[in-house]
Write a structure and sequence with these properties.
globular; three-stranded antiparallel β-sheet; 383 residues; alpha/beta
C-alpha cells in the first residue's frame, strides 16, 4: 500500500491540468508575445488562467504576475519592495518562523545594508500583531509574515497584523506568504489588508515551476528579472504557458466543492493525531482547533525523525521531517525551536500533510504501522 502524506511538500498534479498542459505543448505552442494567431492563442490561455485566479482572489487582472513558484514570488515581493522604497528607509519587520524563501532573502538584504527586526512566536507558533506594531518605525518600509506555517500549521493573524502596522505607519507595505494557505483557508487580499501576496502552484495540484504574486494596484516594486518586458515589465522572460494553463486548472478545481474537501482533509488530520497520541510519548505540535486543516506535526520521542521517516518509507508511507523545501536537512528547525520543544521532541518530529485524495483507510494503515514500528525502533535505539 502506498500512502502519500507529504502534500505540504508537493501535490500530485490534477489529470485535467496535465491534459491541458500536454495540449498546449503540442498544439498551442506559440510565443504569447508573437502577433500571429499562435501567439494570440497562447496569450488567451494566460488570460484565462489569470481570470480564474482573480475570481478567487477577488482582484484585478493587472494585480497578478505569474512566476516560477513561491520562492520567486517571495523574492520578488521582498527584494522588489526593498529596492523601490529604499529612499524612504531600510528597515523591515518579519516573523522569526518564516520559510527559507523569506528568511534567506532577509539575510541577503542585511548584507545589502538593510536592518531586519524579527518578531518571535509564542508556544503555538503564532506571532503577535501588537509586537509587529511596536517594531514598526517611521523608516520601516516592509512587513512580511506567512499566513500558515509550513511545519506545524499555525495560522497567523495576518488581518490583525495588517491593521496594526498600517495604523502606525500607513506607508508600510505588508507582504503575506500564502503558499501554505491558498486552497486551504480563505485567502482574499483585500480582506487581509495586504499589498503583496505569494502563491505556489505545486501546493494545490498544479505543476511545479508555477505560481503568482498578487501586487495591489498602486504598490510600487522594482522588477528583479529584466529583459523583454513581458508582464508589463514586471517579470521579463517568455511566459511558461503550459505551466500557467495548468495552474489555472488547478486553482479552479481546488475551489470546486472547497468546503467538503477541507472538511474531509481536516477529518483525516484529526483521525491521525487522535490515533497516534494514544501511543506513549507521542505528541502533536499542531493546534487542531485553530491550525490549518492539512498539517499535523508529530513528535515520536525516542526515535530520530530521519530513522522514523525511512522506516515508514519502507512500509510505503511518505512523510516529511520539517520543511521539505530545503536541501540542508541537518539544520535544526527554527520553527520547532521557537515554539519551545525540548531536544527529544525536536529531534523526533515528522510532518504529516494531507490532500483531498487521501482516505481514512490510509490514515488507519499509518496508525497501525506506527504502533508496530515504534516499540521496535525505540528498543533498537535504547538497546
Amino acid at each position: 500500500m502506498e500512502v502519500y502524506f507529504d502534500n505540504s511538500a508537493t501535490t500530485r498534479v490534477y489529470d485535467e491540468a496535465i491534459n491541458l498542459m500536454v495540449k498546449v505543448m503540442k498544439e498551442d505552442y506559440g510565443n504569447p508575445s508573437s502577433l500571429h494567431l499562435k501567439g494570440l492563442d497562447a496569450e488567451h490561455l494566460i488570460n484565462d488562467s489569470k481570470n480564474i485566479i482573480c475570481r478567487q482572489l477577488k482582484c484585478l487582472p493587472e494585480e497578478v504576475i505569474f512566476t516560477s513558484g513561491g520562492t520567486e514570488s517571495n523574492n520578488m515581493a521582498i527584494v522588489g519592495s526593498a529596492l523601490a522604497k529604499r529612499r524612504s528607509g531600510k528597515h523591515i519587520v518579519v516573523s522569526s518562523v518564516e520559510h527559507a524563501s523569506v528568511s534567506a532573502v532577509m539575510q541577503f538584504l542585511i548584507r545589502e545594508g538593510y536592518e531586519i527586526t524579527y518578531i518571535p512566536s509564542d508556544e503555538n507558533g503564532i506571532v503577535s500583531p501588537e509586537a509587529f506594531k511596536e517594531a514598526v518605525r517611521d523608516d520601516t518600509i516592509l512587513v512580511s509574515c506567512m499566513h500558515v506555517n509550513n511545519e506545524i500549521g499555525s495560522v497567523m493573524p495576518v488581518q490583525e497584523i495588517a491593521k496594526a502596522v498600517k495604523a502606525k505607519n500607513p506607508s508600510v507595505y505588508f507582504h503575506v506568504d500564502a503558499i501554505q494557505s491558498f486552497g486551504k483557508i480563505e485567502v482574499i487580499p483585500k480582506n487581509i489588508g495586504c499589498d503583496l501576496l505569494s502563491v505556489s502552484g505545486h501546493k494545490i495540484h498544479g505543476p511545479k515551476g508555477s505560481g503568482f504574486l498578487y501586487i495591489k494596484k498602486g504598490t510600487l516594486i522594482r522588477p528583479i528579472i529584466y529583459g523583454g518586458g513581458q508582464q508589463k515589465n514586471m517579470r521579463s522572460g517568455t511566459e511558461n504557458v503550459p505551466a500557467i494553463a495548468g495552474l489555472g486548472v488547478a486553482v479552479e478545481k481546488t475551489f470546486d466543492g472547497f468546503d467538503d474537501k477541507i472538511a474531509h482533509i481536516r477529518g483525516l488530520r484529526d483521525r491521525l493525531v487522535n490515533g497516534l497520541t494514544e501511543i506513549d510519548e507521542v505528541y502533536t505540535n499542531t493546534d487542531l482547533e485553530n491550525g490549518a486543516p492539512h498539517i499535523a506535526s508529530m513528535s515520536f520521542v525516542g526515535v530520530r525523525a530521519e530513522v522514523m521517516l525511512h522506516a515508514l518509507e519502507d512500509k510505503g508511507i511518505y512523510v516529511s521531517s520539517g520543511s521539505a523545501c530545503s536541501s540542508n536537512k541537518s539544520k535544526e528547525s527554527a520553527v520547532l525551536s521557537a515554539i519551545g520543544l525540548d531536544k527529544k521532541r525536536l529531534e523526533s518530529t515528522l510532518r504529516f500533510s494531507f490532500g483531498e485524495d487521501n482516505t481514512e483507510e490510509e490514515v488507519d494503515y499509518a496508525i497501525d504501522t506506527i504502533k508496530q514500528l515504534l516499540p521496535m525502533l525505540r528498543h533498537y535505539v535504547r538497546g
